[in-house]
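We emphasize that the prediction below concerns an isolated chain of 52 residues; any contacts that depend on oligomerization or on bound cofactors are therefore not represented. The input was used exactly as deposited, without trimming of termini.
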Amino acid sequence: MPFERRGGFNSAPREMHKVVCSECKQECEVPFKPSGDRPVFCRDCFQKHKKF
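Result of the prediction step, given as a token string:
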């Protein structure tokens, strides 16, 4: 049975990175290190831009 890591209670905490939202200019944290070549959005602005 292969070991799968899907997150949840047993996963290690993610490293969070402080950024400024490209839309509302508020400081927020994201679970990835931005590369600088794409806009980064806070949770609220991301929901507005998310394509369904």
